Amino acid sequence: MPPFTYDAPLAPSPAGFGPAGPFPRANLTHTLDRRWLHYAFLSRDGRRSLVANAAWLGPAADAGDDRERFTTILLLHERGGSWSSSQFNAGISAPPWSAFRLPQAHGEVGKLAIGARAGAPAVKLDLARTSRPCTSQCAFFGGKHHLRWQSETGVRATGTWDLGAGPVDVDAVGYHERVRGRWGWPELGEWVFGFANDLAGDPRKPPAWAGVFTFIRPIADSRDTTASFMVWRDGRMCRHFPRRNTSFAVRGMLEPDALTVAPPLARLLGVRPMSAVPKRLAISARLGDDWAVLDFESEAAVRIVIPSETSLHAFSVHEVVGPCVLAGCVGGRRFEIETRGIVEFSGGAGGD
Amino acid sequence: MAIEAADVLVETIEALSSRAPAVGAAAASALGGTRLNLFFGDGSEGSLIASRSRLVVGRSAIDATVDVHFDDRALALLFDAQRRPTDESLEGSLDVRGPRQELLAAWRCFSILSQRASGMRIVQAIWMRYRAQARDGRWSGRVDKPQPRRRRRGNGKWDESRWPALAYLDDRHPAARELIDKNEPVLAPARSLWNGREGASWQDQPEIFDNDLHETLARCKRRVVDEVLRLIPRKAPREDLYELMRQYVTREGKGLRPTLTIATCMALGGRMEDALRTAAALEFFHNGFLVHDDIADESTHRRGLPTLHEAYGVGLAVNTGDAMNLFAVDMTLSNLESLGLARTLGLIHEILHMCRETVEGQAIELGWIRRNTVPRRDADYSRMSTKKTGWYTCISPCRMGAVAAGETDPARLDGFNETFRLIGIAFQIQDDVLNLIGETELYGKEPLGDLLEGKRTVMMIHLFREASERVRRRMQKINTMPRAEKTQAHAEEMLAAMKKAGSIDYAIALADKLASQGVRRFEKDVSFIEENPAKAVLRQIANYVTTRAL
């Protein structure tokens, strides 16, 4: 698959009402400018997981020109095995599918193909929205750094999936996110982020319940900490528990054998070790009579090593897959689902 | 019941001896031969002397060279970290009388105690009790002003109705079968990342080292036992194998080996996780050896509970011990992914050496018992003890911690040998003494069990060397009796003979001498490690043996 470059300006909206998305029509001019589209899917049978990221980055500091950079990485996991990863130069169909490219009706199918240059891992998926996104959120930290993101759960994905042994059919449901901003990895510090969809139920309908949480903790100033926990019901976000009303706790550590390093090149570079990934994560939230608890258990993790523009230490994103329980009560409606989720434990660029 | 000031000092010194041995030993060294009489403001009195690297406090005056008169304010200077010395130092609070050199020695001793011990939680707890009964202002002459009640901010409902994630993990899902089934840590507590107000990094590892050695030992043991439990499967044959293993490894123990391994690894720049599986492998080996050792010695109790063969029969016990040794190998090999091939091979090399030394030591002792011989020289005991317990209790844990940190220089690895050989022997002798004179609840074995087993201890060797021919023949006869025929009366007869021959005092003195030598060697042989908190823990452990209460 030829590498996709995003040199061309974003296409105008077919409806003619300004930019079609997923991002504003503005060039990335600073080295720390970033935009990305994030995809994470779990197959309905709970066996397979997919994480992919297509990122636009500002011009490299030493490049001598103002060209944007573009990277894509694809990671696949099959239960009982380890994660399989492309390098950062995976090919992606153009333009990358996004739920935030408007107009886009529910149920309208879009194509997304991502594949490693080596041929595997690779996926060819038909994606369709079933739900609506949360309101856009923003974290401001370190005085001049910011990160803005918007999430949508319940994205349906059907198609094929290839780990090198030939394509297999996949029916998955997942999560899509757009992120943009300008930040340095050391200033950002670390985050714990993740989601869980109800994998059961009618595949044509949105998941009955879904949850997305974010915890961003800039190292320099703890007052900049951001935390939120959002709950979706039947495709609509029905409760946003804000920073003060959430709590996060971890316990234990994942067996080191359950951790893979990605992209494969990173294994050759001798990056310094990271702290062990927590074995268990619990999140609780309460607002008035509404409450929610997410209890996640780490099963297998992949550490994506991302070079940092402003420090010698790399920033690492641990994509962790495992079973979880999402329970709570919103608007007097009690729910409890047993499902699987994907959690990110990130950090490590500081302390240089 | 009211606590007197002298009691406070007694409790404080006792707490220091066990929880910060290096501090106690340094203070004892500073005090030297100076003998103090202490007179307190509330009329109580006591004495303080240094004996075998320990501070010993008495509750009555002695023939002393220095008299120290405290009032409560001066006492607070020593240990009460909640009072700032400058606020409390009032003229006439402290009166010290005696020869100049000895006054200075007393002052140096008190300086060490006040600087190093006052921040310890256990010391603070003792002083808190004392302060609580002295709320009449006698304590400092200062009355705390009533503080205005602070208005609570934020969502008031949160406090009453919250389910913090921390409580969810720790309380709503307490350590139980469910956690074990999930291969989750049972003993390691959960950590809060965010409680609505304060954040912490998910990368922060729980603190391992504490200035209180008891705390450090307990923490290291908890982490390692969790790792051990994680590896034991929950499947059949559960009742006859895995459950026995699980029960056995969670029995009370001091946590000395895990702490040595983790502290050495971290002292050399490694991470705690690097040493965790190695320490867990050592625990498996140790427990496997204990199960087999108890069968060979026909012991009835271990760590305060019946030995495995007593409770479940010899067959199951042997098999469980074998399984523990097998799991130890498995645990060592599991380092391949995290530590790499070179370090794992280094660890295997160390383990092979340790096991060989241990089985040789066991063979020497069992041979003595079988032939009913008692060696005449202490050197024979030292050799046997080093092989049987010294290697796997002290030397190998340090060497393996170093290997896990990536240390490969044989000269540096050998730097741990002599120090921890001496400390290991001293520790073993003290253990043997405790079996004779210690409380069963504290020691965990049957009382006088070593005498019933005919164990060749330093005391027995001394007894056979020093006793008259008649006593020796009688003791020989007791030793030749089968274990089942020996009664408590036989053991007590032998104990009386040992006391008469001065064997116990001799053993205590020998242990003290060896431990002191070990501490000196530590400073010399391990000087290649730069000073850091983990090395301080190793130093505390080295001193732990010198200040153990016997």
Structure description:
- The complex is a heterodimer of chains A (352) and B (550).
- Chain A is mostly beta strands.
- Chain A has one domain.
- Helix content of chain A is 1%, strand content 53%.
- Chain A is built from one helix and 21 strands.
- In chain A, strands 11, 12, 13, 14, 15, 16, 17, 18, 19, 20 and 21 form an eleven-stranded mixed sheet that branches.
- About 1% of the residues of chain A have low confidence.
- Chain B is of the alpha+beta class.
- Chain B has two domains: 129 residues, Nonspecific Lipid-transfer Protein, Chain A; 334 residues, Farnesyl Diphosphate Synthase (Orthogonal Bundle).
- Helices cover 64% and strands 6% of the residues of chain B.
- Chain B is built from 26 helices and eight strands.
- Chain B has a five-stranded mixed sheet with strand order 3-2-1-4-5. A two-stranded antiparallel ribbon of chain B has the order 7-8.
- Chain B is globular.
- About 6% of the residues of chain B have low confidence.
- The chains are: A mainly beta (352), B alpha+beta (550).
Find the biggest chain interface.
A-B, 42 and 42 residues
By CATH, the superfamily of the largest domain in chain B comes out as Farnesyl Diphosphate Synthase
Average pLDDT for all residues of chain A: 89
- The ordered H/E elements of chain A are EEEEEEEEEEHEEEEEEEEEEE
Structural class of chain A, by secondary structure, is: mainly beta
Straight-line N-to-C gap of chain A: 38 Å
Rg of chain A: 19 Å
Strand runs of chain B, count: 8
β content of chain B, as a range? Answer: 5-15%
Estimate the global geometry of chain B from the Cα principal axes.
globular
| Approximate strand percentage of chain A | over 45%
Overall spatial form of chain A: globular
Q: What oligomeric state do the depicted chains represent?
A: heterodimer
